[in-house]
Amino acid sequence: MKTFLKKIRSLFPLSWKDCLILVLVMAAGSGICTLLQTISTSDVHVPMIFVLMVLIISMLTDGYFYGILAAVASVFAVNWAFTYPYMKLDFSVYGYPLTFITMLAVGIASSALATRLKEQQKLRLEAEREKTRANLLRSVSHDLRTPLTTISGSISAVLENGNTMEEEEKRELLVNAREDAQWLNRLVENLLSITRISGSSAIHKTDELLEEVISEAVVSFQKRNPDVKVSVSLPEEPLFVPMDAMLIEQVLRNLMENAVVHGQTTDRIQIAAVREGTHIAVSVADNGRGISQQMLPHLFDGMIPMEKKNSDGNRFMGIGLAVCRTIIEAHGGTISAANRKEGGAVFRFTLETGGNTRYEYSG
Amino acid sequence: MNIRDKILVVEDEKSISGFIRTVLAGAGYDVISAHNAAEAFLMISSHCPDLVLLDLGLPDLDGTAVIEAVRQWTQLPIIVVSARSFEKDKIDALDLGADDYITKPFSAPELLARVRVAIRHTRLSGMMTSSGKFISGDLTVDYDKHMVTVKGENCHLTQNEFKIVSLLSRCAGKVLTYDFIMKELWGPQSRGTNQILRVNMANIRRKIEHNPAEPKYIFTEVGVGYRMIEPDA
Questions:
Q1: Best to test chain B binding among A182, A187, A207, A212 (most B CBs inside 10 Å)
Q2: Is the minimum CB–CB distance between B212 and chain A shorter than 8 Å?
Q3: Alpha helices of chain A — where are they, by DSSP H?
Q4: Domains of chain A
Q5: Hey, are the CB atoms on A215 and B213 less than 8 Å from each other?
Q6: Is a pLDDT exceeding 60 seen at residue B173?
Q7: Homologous superfamily of the B6-124 domain (CATH)
Q8: Ranges under pLDDT 50 in chain A
Q9: DSSP state for residue A298 in the 8-state scheme
């Protein structure tokens, strides 16, 4: 009995929102018909308008239920209110039964079609998400191999030939191993960030002070890269922006790391945030060697055309920017990259402010 | 003779435990270790360590439960070792009475810095009353005059702003959770939004930091709370 009820419920999902849509659209239909009645005496348009309303309701609601309900309701509404005899239910007049059956059929068919369309859209979205995930996995496994080889290779070299090696040599191997281990850690952090964006739009946003998130990212970046000068410029007012702070910090860290790793000659990074109407734009600019024209269009899709000759320099291309894009898009923002006129690259992303960025200060 | 501080390392992963022991022993600490919560309880009561490094993911009992149990009878400093991206765990641990946390993976200097701060706080907890001054770089917090100065110039903090700074400076080096600061300042009823604290902090930063986005004195631990820089020795 319970499973039966469940099945019924899944076929006819009830929700206040959908009920409201049904009532409003039907009311709109009746309103239009009433209006038209005052202009013209013909009632040919009436069934058409109601079929249109049925179609609209099917598009806006979940499942077949509301579409069919709307079709049936239309039949009664047309019969009762808009055809002779007015304000009276009468299906016996010549030709009426056929009109009403046709209308009902059209209503049901269009609601079925609308439902199919919505299902297909959902499938396509899912397939797209699956593709991104597969791309990410591919680049991750590719990216994992190199550092793991360095780490295990260097350490076994030290362990096995340690006594015949120069102190200097040993140290260099170990330093390389440590660097690659740290890089692996950053990769794992990126992967963890992605798992935080589970499902479609399920990120947990809270109002955060933008300056705190930026400064935390800068502090942790400076710990790893003390030689790079980072400067930050922000609006004077404190900006509260709804976001998942951990994720936005990840974006900033990736952009700064990239500026150093790919910019190669980068020794200055400038971060700036400005308010642009209903959103905040954050930019991370460096003075490195910039982005090559052939890479520019592919930066964010996680599928960088590998320059084989220079595979070592490119191995970090992997997932950092793809993760940035995933995060920013999950926040409803956009991210873009460009070269600066004065040299170097600039990455820019936007975040919605949700209207209220000011907070009244009261003691 | 120099009495060495004794540190208990509670960690079930042998390799991590080994690495922590080596680092601590190299810095002159006595190190004992436990691999699960049951052993940890035994060691704490029999060895009376000066500090506990506690991994949150133990095989027999959740790390937060260990903190809760230990806090029933002793205030010895506890540093929690946890993975990133679980800020909820960190906040829970701190609110249950852990003194600090360190995020995996961490480096040897980071670990030693945290241990030093935690041990110093227990040593000085009696002395850190509201008398005297806190000095770090150009920043001075004068507890007697209720005044904060940078390069000798008064920052004109409001009453609440001063309370926040003096609270943080008395626990300098330790992270204080939003909830903890809220309760200290606005009382136990101050549940809910911590936006008022954030706004106060934004104003403090504009008064004491040269550039609010590159703080030198008060750092944010995103999602967890605030940490003040350690005072000059």
A1: A212
A2: yes
A3: 2-11, 16-39, 45-60, 65-77, 96-161, 167-196, 210-224, 245-261, 311-314, 320-330
A4: 2-125 (no CATH), 204-363 (3.30.565.10)
A5: yes
A6: yes
A7: Response regulator (3.40.50.2300)
A8: 305-316, 357-363
A9: G
Distances (CA, A) of A153 to A68, A146, A150, A174, A201: 68, 10, 5, 10, 42
Q: Domain B133-228's class? A: mainly alpha
Roughly what angle, to the nearest 10 degrees, separates helices A96-161 and A320-330? Answer: 140
Q: Report d(CA A185, CA A217) in Å as an integer.
A: 16
Mean pLDDT across B131-135:
79
Indicate yes or no: CB of B203 within 8 angstroms of CB of A211.
Answer: no
Maximal CA-CA distance, chain A: 108
Q: How confident is the model at residue B84 (pLDDT cuts 50, 70, 90)?
A: low
From chain B, pick out residues whose CB is under 8 angstroms from the CB of A268: none
Nearest residue to A25 via CA among A63, A102, A77: A77
| pTM reported for the whole predicted model | 0.71
Query: Of residues A76 and B206, which shows the higher confidence score?
Result: B206
Q: Where are the domains of chain B?
A: 6-124, 133-228
Residue A282's pLDDT is 95
Q: Does the distance separating the beta carbons of B85 and A192 come in below 8 Å?
A: yes
Yes or no, beta carbons of B213 and A234 under 8 Å apart: yes
Task: Flag whether residue B215 sits within 8 Å of chain A, measured between CB atoms.
Answer: yes
Contact A208 B160 (CB under 8 A): no
Q: Chain B within 8 Å of A189 (Cβ-Cβ)?
A: yes
